[in-house]
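In this supplementary section we document a worked example of the pipeline. Step one takes a protein sequence of length 134 as its only input; no multiple sequence alignment statistics are reported here. Step two produces a three-dimensional model, which step three serialises into structure tokens for compact storage. The input and output of this example are shown verbatim.
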Amino acid sequence: MLEATNGRRLLLEAAHNPAGAYALAAYLRREFPEALPIVFGALRDKDAALMLKAILPVASRIVLTEPPSARARPAEELVAIASKLSPNVPIEIESNPREALERAWAACPVACVAGSIFLVGAILGSLGPGAREL
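The serialised model returned by step three reads:
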């Protein structure tokens, strides 16, 4: 868990495959029984459907974005998958990862980023030197 300079908190977990996504979901269910907003982006060669199937039940909302990689799956494709899997979870699209995080934080001061190591790296880099580990 990180604390950003603005006092908001962030859990960064790549969860870049179905097993990782299910492990993250189990952790979130145990540690955050009140669902959190999740920022999610994945690469085209990953099983985004199974990853989303794992984490959508523990999301208060999901903000779909695109990791900074030529292999990134477009957020619009993720919307189609997520809306079929969990039509009751609010879904937002923001192609810019940092702006996606801001949208998640607008809903709750604690958010989670998952789905791609590239996404986690981009978010971590955008937080700057003021972020600190809790």
